[in-house]
Amino acid sequence: MLQSCWSRNTWKPCNCGGAIKRRTSWTDSNPMRRFEACENNRKIRGKGLYWEWMDKEICL
Questions:
Q1: Are 15 and 50 in contact (CB under 8 A)?
Q2: Is residue 60 part of a domain?
Q3: Domain range holding 46?
């Protein structure tokens, strides 16, 4: 299950018109790892919307 939190002050526009926001992952496999994603990713999965890790992978 994807768990993350939104940063209210950090965003830029996506090609789809949605906002790209910086988030933090709280999953077991990526705890506290930051990423940016379009707010529409949950609505339109697999349609090429923006998504990118901001941090390097953490080895546990």
A1: yes
A2: no
A3: 4-53
